[in-house]
């Protein structure tokens, strides 16, 4: 089957809508599997119902759940078989017994199912750094509109309801109106799912006089809205990671062995992650020790680092996902004593579990990297 076939399939994976809206279970399970394939945890198209899978499902589920959604990974593990892409390998002695089960539970899965597996062609596409981001982006079409996804994403970063309302208004109406006045077809910017298409359109806004004038009078609110949605698209499509991996693969100055190490480092795995786990022993700030929930994050960004810096464990922090995202986007940083710095642009940081008393125990080798982060990434 072609890539286009699987893009179409993942865009219409048919989540449970019995409650009047799309429940995120199937999508979160697929996201979890995509992550584990990318990280090298799943290598041979056998998806085991283990703690690593369940923890990764929970991480995505915590971002996308609403109201009374229950954290039940066994449901999509079983019912994704209706998609035609996901298949269950039932233990041979239990096939007839499993067919009689009407409502599978976690214990049922463990008792009767050996593992799940994907279509062979889909698995190969998900292993490829070139095609996996395309399929990941296609999967997001199942969860509400891009606008709703963006609102939840912005909320998860501590943006206030007022700021989110201002940004969405600018992206849906004001900026499209100004672009339309100069001959760019009017389009709700929140309906654009392609990072590169959005970038192409947005580049024209800075040539529009009315945008420049209104943005100046609004203290940069309109440009902040544009940058915020761009960061959202970059996040959900992992476009920067994809570009960096492409650059590694095409670099003729490094060996294939070095390329393998660097690709694994770029996706947060391999030696770099192991070094950070060994150094920090848990989240660098909260000391939380379940490694499944921790992100190996560069202090000086990958794109700005040389090859030595990219593999240097002192250029890294091991952080819980919510703190990592705030750090990566420049909403928090740390001074040389390790005390947290919180940007004034992070409206409601307490909802992220961030507070002014947080700190990290630094070595001297961290200082230059953090100085770079404060100067070039931290949002004053």
Give the helix tally. Answer: 19
Count of the domains = 3
Distance between the termini: 49 Å
Oligomer: single chain
What is the helix/strand order? HHHHEHHEHHHHHHHHHHEHEHEEH
Model regions low in confidence, pLDDT < 50 over at least 5 residues: none
Mean pLDDT: 85
Main sheet attributes: strand count, strand direction, barrel closure = 2 strands, antiparallel
Task: Give Rg in angstroms.
Answer: 22 Å
Strand order of the biggest β-sheet:
1-2
Helix content: 40-55%
* Class of secondary structure makeup: mainly alpha
> What best-fitting shape do the alpha-carbon axes yield?
globular
Strand content: 5-15%
Number of strands: 6
Q: How is this structure best described in words?
A:
The protein has helices at about 5-10, 25-40, 50-65, 75-80, 95-100, 105-110, 120-125, 130-140, 145-155, 160-180, 195-205, 210-215, 220-235, 240-250, 255-265, 270-280, 305-310, 320-330, 365-375, and strands at about 85-90, 115-120, 295-300, 315-320, 330-335, 340. By secondary structure, it is mostly helical. The protein folds into three domains: about 5-140, no CATH class; about 145-235, no CATH class; about 265-375, no CATH class. Strands 1-2 form a two-stranded antiparallel sheet. It is globular and about 70 Å long. The N and C termini lie far apart (about 50 Å).
């Amino acid at each position: 089957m072609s890539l286009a076939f699987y893009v179409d399939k993942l865009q219409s994976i048919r989540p449970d809508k019995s409650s009047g809206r799309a429940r995120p279970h199937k999508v979160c399970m697929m996201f979890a599997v995509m992550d584990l394939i990318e990280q090298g945890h799943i290598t041979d198209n056998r998806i085991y119902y283990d703690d690593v899978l369940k923890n990764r499902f929970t991480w995505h589920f915590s971002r996308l759940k609403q109201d009374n959604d229950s954290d039940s990974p066994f449901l999509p593990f079983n019912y994704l078989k209706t998609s035609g892409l996901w298949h269950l390998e039932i233990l041979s002695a239990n096939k007839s017994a499993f067919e009689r089960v009407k409502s599978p539970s976690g214990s049922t899965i463990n008792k009767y199912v050996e593992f799940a597996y994907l279509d062979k062609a889909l698995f190969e596409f998900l292993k490829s750094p070139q095609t996996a981001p395309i399929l990941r982006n296609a999967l997001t079409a199942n969860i509400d509109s891009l606008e709703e996804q963006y609102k939840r994403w912005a909320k998860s970063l501590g943006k206030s309801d007022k700021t989110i309302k201002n940004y969405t208004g600018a992206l849906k109406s004001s900026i499209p109106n100004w672009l339309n006045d100069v001959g760019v077809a009017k389009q709700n910017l929140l309906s654009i799912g392609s990072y590169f298409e959005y970038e192409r359109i947005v580049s024209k806004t800075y040539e529009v006089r009315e945008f420049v004038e209104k943005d100046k009078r609004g203290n940069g609110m309109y440009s902040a809205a544009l940058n915020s949605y761009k960061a959202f698209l970059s996040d959900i499509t992992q476009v920067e990671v994809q570009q960096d991996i492409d650059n590694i693969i095409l670099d003729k100055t490094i060996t294939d062995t070095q390329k393998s190490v660097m690709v694994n480092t770029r996706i947060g795995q391999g030696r770099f992650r192991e070094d950070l786990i060994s150094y920090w022993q848990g989240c660098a700030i909260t000391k939380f020790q379940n490694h499944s929930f921790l992100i190996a994050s560069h202090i000086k960004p990958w794109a700005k680092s040389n090859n030595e810096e990219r593999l240097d464990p002192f250029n890294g922090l091991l952080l819980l996902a919510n703190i990592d995202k705030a750090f990566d986007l420049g909403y928090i940083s740390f001074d040389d004593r390790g005390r947290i710095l919180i940007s004034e642009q992070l409206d409601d940081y307490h909802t992220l579990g961030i507070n002014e008393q947080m700190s990290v125990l630094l070595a001297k080798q961290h200082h230059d990297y953090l100085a770079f982060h404060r100067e070039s990434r931290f949002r004053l």
